[in-house]
TrEMBL record:
<feature type="compositionally biased region" description="Polar residues">
    <location>
        <begin position="225"/>
        <end position="237"/>
    </location>
</feature>
<dbReference type="InterPro" id="IPR016186">
    <property type="entry name" value="C-type_lectin-like/link_sf"/>
</dbReference>
<feature type="transmembrane region" description="Helical">
    <location>
        <begin position="191"/>
        <end position="217"/>
    </location>
</feature>
<keyword id="KW-0812">Transmembrane</keyword>
<keyword id="KW-1133">Transmembrane helix</keyword>
<dbReference type="InterPro" id="IPR051505">
    <property type="entry name" value="C-type_lectin_domain"/>
</dbReference>
<dbReference type="GO" id="GO:0030246">
    <property type="term" value="F:carbohydrate binding"/>
</dbReference>
<protein>
    <submittedName>
        <fullName>CHODL protein</fullName>
    </submittedName>
</protein>
<keyword id="KW-0732">Signal</keyword>
<keyword id="KW-0472">Membrane</keyword>
<feature type="region of interest" description="Disordered">
    <location>
        <begin position="222"/>
        <end position="247"/>
    </location>
</feature>
<dbReference type="InterPro" id="IPR001304">
    <property type="entry name" value="C-type_lectin-like"/>
</dbReference>
<feature type="domain" description="C-type lectin">
    <location>
        <begin position="9"/>
        <end position="153"/>
    </location>
</feature>
<dbReference type="GO" id="GO:0016020">
    <property type="term" value="C:membrane"/>
</dbReference>
<dbReference type="InterPro" id="IPR016187">
    <property type="entry name" value="CTDL_fold"/>
</dbReference>
<keyword id="KW-0430">Lectin</keyword>
<dbReference type="Pfam" id="PF00059">
    <property type="entry name" value="Lectin_C"/>
</dbReference>
Amino acid sequence: GQKVCFADLKHPCYKMAYFHELSSRVSFQEARLACESEGGALLSLENEAEQKLIESMLQNLTKPGTGISDGDFWIGLWRNGEGQTSGACPDLYQWSDGSSSQYRNWYTDEPSCGSEKCVVMYHQPTANPGLGGPYLYQWNDDRCNMKHNYICKYEPEINPTSPVEKTYFTNQPGDTHQNVVVTEAGIIPNLIYVVIPTIPLLLLILVAFGTCCFQMLHKSKGRTKTSPNQSTLWISKSTRKESGMEV
């Protein structure tokens, strides 16, 4: 659910909307509206390089201990009309954001067409491989009312202005490091906003505490100081009477 951007103005931003609970996943139209409400669109893929970039991002979902695994993702490819299982059917698919890209990454024997008009990117790492290999990252057409995760695509941006929405900046798409985080806006700025207003109060408390300690130390020295004109010994002024003793 985090928007991922690159540290330049040449490459788009992306967001992987993954829902662990099956009941929270959405239809194709719901996913499309969700992306558009944030100023983006369902993912369109221009070439194999962009496909590989998305794959590297999705691999972060399957790292050990994350608890995230199976769940296909809606992309912006769909078919408008009632095309059947004819040879012309694959040519009827178009991108919902208006892209003219002809790049396709269909799984074996896909698209099956018929009533399946909307396209998902497979993400089923725990499923047994089929005829086309693992069900990972290749495309499949599905019924548009089915519930899946989705991927949004946005225009390039730099230096996010909102500290609440976390935006991750990575290196160039060709880098060997996957999804390297450079800048994150969120917890640290909010913490600074909380700490700075309390500084005057902390200084006032520190001054009061120091003054109190100084006064206590001064009084303590006054009690223990002894006058040089006073003797610490008691001497009797009366002459001791000698007892009458005979030698």
